[in-house]
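User: Predict the full complex structure for these chains.
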Amino acid sequence: MQRSTFWARFLHDKYGMIGAAVVSVYAFIVVFAPWVAPHDPYAFDVSNLFRPPAFLPGGTTTYLLGTDELGRDMLSRLIFGMRLSLFMSVAVVAIIVVFGTVVGMLGAYYGGWVNSLLMRVTDIQLSFPVVILAISILAVTTPTVPAIIAVLAIGNWPIYARVTRGVALGEKVKEYVKAAQALGASDFRVIFKYILGNIGASILVVSILDLAAMVIWEAVLGFIGLSVLPPTPTLGNIMGDGKNYMINAWWISTMPGIIMFFLLSGLSLLGEGISKASGVRGEAQVQSAI
Amino acid sequence: MTNNETPILEIVDAHKYYDLKTLTAFGRVREKVKAVRGVSLKLVQGEALGLVGESGCGKSTLARLIVKLETPHQGTVFFRGQDVFKMSPKETKETHRRIQLIFQNPFSSLSPAMTIGEHVADALTIHNIVRGKAAIEERAKQLLDTVGIGREVYGNYPSLSSAGDLQLANIARALATNPDILISDEGISVLDASEQAKILNLLKDLQDELKLTYIIITHDLSVVRHICDRLVVMYLGKVMEIGDNASVFSAPINPYTKALIESVPSVAKGLRDIRMTAMKGEVPSPIHLPPGCTFAPRCDLATDACRQTEPELIEVMPGRSTACHHWEQVTRMHATS
Amino acid sequence: MSNETVLDVRELRTYYYTVTGTHKVVDGFSFQVRKGRVLGLAGPGGSGKTTVAASVMRLIQPPGKIVGGEIYFKGKDLVKMPERELAKLRGSEIGMVFQDASSYMDPLYVIGDQLMETVQAHAQVTNEQARQRGIELLSLVGIPDAADRMKNYPHQFSGGMQQRALIAMAIANNPSLIILDDPTRSLDVTIQAQVMQMLDRLREKTEAGILLISSNVALMSQFADDMLIMFGGRCIEMGPKNVVIGRPHHPHTKSLIEAIPVLEGERLERLKVLVESRGLWERSGCVWYSACPFRMDRCAVEVPELVEVEEGHYSACFLGVGEAKKAAP
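Assistant: Here is the predicted structure of the three-chain assembly.
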């Protein structure tokens, strides 16, 4: 669709813009973390253990969101935690998008054994919860960043491939694909230029929502202690860390949750805004209605 | 057409069936849709052949066989003397370059995610017609100018253009590969009168200039009247009549052709307050064909012989063939016009 | 012979409000359909014909809106009528047949049920009576073995038969007005001939006023009594068929007639090309200005009103009758 039409629609979509704004703020904070964070996330402050957030009685403005059991600044830890969580999530999504899309499209276009193999693999992985897989792998090895990324990627790519396959199948039977084939285009070209070009928007939207899902996954892993080991902060392991102190320092576990809530809402709104703006409505409909 | 010339395209006894699984009272039954039932045709370089028939006659399937989007169950297609279905991948690609197909629906034959310019440019890239980004873009814009849509639409996405303009874009894309044969599969009859006229004039102009050979597939006789030299009339997978434009229109030798001609609405008739006349009956399903001549149930000249034996396509006069047991009687019937 | 006017449309204006601007699709359109007569509404794609039909039936959806004019059906203004009353008219007093039959029938119900539903929605009849009426209707529109066919699903009908079934539904309750919007567009030419032949017989039997909308002028010339040529949302010529087609006044109508490819006669070297209608909505003055070989300065700024160039024959052009005759090629 016309680029200008997409932007015209997107910029007028109130909710989409809010989502974009929220995500941009997060992106900014994450990228400029070392300059935005007020303190060193690893620095202890023994005289300020369990400080509540500034807006509660007992809080100080030095530590805006309070401190944890080792006196470390929550705000800084959260900023760096978000940075790592998002980094891992983006990495996972990147892997599954590339891998899943390619496999999905090949399966859709060629059918045959590629397709059957894909179906069987996804069936297996759909019936085998990722969490169990994660636990079994991470319990045995040290949960490093690459390991977690690998686990989440392996656990999630089949569904992705299957969805892509479905969408690609829908495109494959359309006439423009036949026209490209009759033109003499190679299979590679038909798949990666013609079909991919048309499902790209859907893939983008799904990726954004998947990103949100991966952030949640990391949080879950962190909560049960299978994410990156402390002292390196991630949203998940901060939450996991704080579960021991829910009564006297509830903010340690709750803050990551609130941060995630806004991030995920922003991602959702953004994803939906893109999806609505790239839909086929408006001008074309008027023409055909007449 | 001289007999010594090798036709640029020859279809020999092509048969194509489609399997259809339908649910009946007896469970799933495999039925055969007989799309093309033994079609043989010769195409001479430089001519404009009109392939006429109504839906279900197999003309689109035939087009797809020619460009290798489908494979025949029997028979084959020769391009420049070579069997298309025995070609190597490289030769196949070259054949794709030389025989271009323009589809019926101008919207759906273009990818909504690519601009019109990108489509034409891609054709140039696939066959290495031009190299270098700038050269490709310029050539694509030239082609858009040539077909009359104008280079301004280069950056537009298909959704913004009308059907007629998009069909012109499709033609631009087809011409980009410097083809020998251009096949239009119902791509013209779906347009408005003005868009049709534009395209038909364009095709006529281009034919001499670019030494093109055309196969115009349509159900609309008025489209072929002014552009085609020779006509082939099809009905339910078989050829009913072949002949030159003038003869077929003035003196058809097949009752189906005659009925087809008479079904076309005409202003001349309207001014004389002549109401529409029509032949009787529905088109039989291509799965369960009537015995003998498939047109017999609807034909005024049908006899028992017609219902028993399907007539062969015979050349009854030089350059004129028909598949009818009673073809002489057709010429004696006068059309009301 | 004075025929009762069934439909009287006055200065209809339907606009579409989109992100890119306001499209004045129908812009001041007036016509009448008389009892027992067929009015053919011709115009190229994009001229607003379907919008006219949809407006009459008040089926315009946003971003479109009827912004002005009156539509009198048997004396009552449909524009001001409440939806509930309109719903009673649709399908009973006014029957409408659309272009693509298959999209207007429910694929999950047999034809018989859909016919019976149409009948029973507007009349208190028993199921058996409705069924008999259904069979009667299918036979009327030329579908053989009507009783058996009642049990078929729409997909089991061919395109031509689907269209006929739709026509059967439209006439089920003896409407006073039948609107046909390009009913044969998607049909093969021989099937089109069959459907038109059937419609011809129908119109001899019924006394309904018929509005036939199409871009196929040749088709209309064999079916309509009166013709109306539409371009750019406005009516540019109107009159009895023989006059409009035989002695067209407006330059656009002339070029329209000339551009019709004919099977009889000589083959043409070049076909005449018409100007497209889309995108002309914003201009002032005559909609045909840019393409007209006879244009004058006033045509660019003034909108020509319909004037009577001879009895019963109207044309929206500043060329006087004498000048028009002179200008004829």
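The CA atoms of residues 6 and 208 of chain A lie 18 Å apart.
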